[in-house]
Amino acid sequence: MNDLGILDLMLPAFCECLVLVGIHSYLGLHVIRRKVIFVDLALAQVAALGTTVGFLFGMAPDSVAAFIFSVLFTFMAAAVFSVARLENEKVPQEAIIGLVYAIAAAVVILVIDRAPHGAEHIKEVMTGAILWVQWESIIFAAVVYGLIGVIHFIFADKFLLITRSPEKAYEKGMRVRLWDFFFYMTFGIVISISVRTAGVLLVFVFLVVPAITATLITDRLKWQLIIGWTMGVVVTVIGLGISYWADMPSGPTVVSFYGAMLVVAAVALYLGRRRSLKGLLRVALGAGVVAAALLVIIFGGRALGRSPLAASRSHEAHATHDHGHDHGHGDVAEGHAGDDNGEATSVEELLEALGQADEAEQRRLVDALGARSRAVLSQAFERTDDDGLKLIVARQMARVHGQGAGGRLMVQIIREAEFPFVRSEAAEALGELAGQDFHYSPEGDAEANRAALEAMDRWLQTVSER
């Protein structure tokens, strides 16, 4: 790839990381001093919960509506965290934060179980896609973070006093819980935006590692900010460069490099302050212990992997289950259109199997069946209430049985689906199939989309006449 290609690919991700470093390095200093290290993870999980619940109401995870919903959920978490701060704490605030994280994670799993076809979308929200961030998202984040920075600058005295010495804040008569709520509200907005592009891990590292490094070096806030921002820029540039040249995922690479740099910084500071042979020997001993542990892992793993202990204890049970599973799917795939009773049984078996499968398995089953029986696919489409599954069937129908057959099912989804994001996906699939843009608006009603729907019908007619 030429230099222009590298620049086009990596520049947006680099700029997004710079925006994240700017706000998260500052907020990280508050987090470290407040000793609420995992508040970022808790708020990120609550934001994901808001996005997931919004999905059940028909909000696409990357939509503005889903973002608003996730922010509202983080505001509720902010209220919980502010109430959890007591003047005489018997229960540490960190315990409440951990509990909120665990409950939010559990509820996300329960909600996703009610909307299995949303799992892939939610996964994208949780893991992020920093390499594919759009300039619009970067500009939006920069503007919002800038406004939040202005708010923190205006109320810096109050925020810093509560962070550094909550006891003094209580003595001065400050409404600590109210200001805490305000602080966590701004924090929640930042997290809701950051997680959508960078993912939970990268956001957490941006928040904590520069703050830890800066705190180890100096106690002065001004220099802590400068050190955190400088470290963030340098590590981001090198981490993204490594991810590109080594062909590795950008987010995890930057996270790993941040961890490595934190270790290097800690060792360098230790040696710089000790300045003695004893300190050097301790570092050498620590390095030796780490090397020995790595050797044990490598050689021990190889030895155990080749031993009889590595065989699955339930191998026979899995083999029997897989045999029966494959046999059942074979029966489904062997259904034939000529026998009404046999075809009906095949459809019922197909729907039962698809209802218990994830999206990848559903695609595999439908692909296996589609080439054998168009009638079974049509009946499966009509009998299921799952719009995501309907679209999978429609795509397979188009691949195997022609544009007209698949296109009609896609148009039916567009006309009948309840949620806008489903209609949007179906319209996108139809546009790819037809090779044209029908200018359909998923948020509009039938009247607003009359021209688009008529264009779809005309295209279907021309396909049928071929």
CATH superfamily of the largest domain: ABC transporter involved in vitamin B12 uptake, BtuC
CATH fold description of the largest domain: ABC transporter involved in vitamin B12 uptake, BtuC
* Percent range of helical residues: over 70%
* Overall CATH class of the largest domain: Mainly Alpha
Main sheet record: none
Structure, briefly:
By secondary structure, the chain is mainly α. The protein has 20 helices and no strands.
Write structural notes for this entry.
- By secondary structure, this protein is mostly helical.
- The chain has two domains: 3-240, Orthogonal Bundle (ABC transporter involved in vitamin B12 uptake, BtuC); 322-464.
- Helices cover 80% and strands 0% of the residues.
- It has helices at 3-34, 39-56, 64-84, 93-114, 119-127, 135-154, 156-164, 166-171, 176-217, 221-245, 250-274, 277-305, 315-333, 340-355, 359-370, 374-383, 387-401, 403-416, 420-434, 450-464.
- The radius of gyration is 28 Å and the shape is globular.
- It starts with a helix and ends with a helix.
- Mean pLDDT is 78; it is low at 314-345.
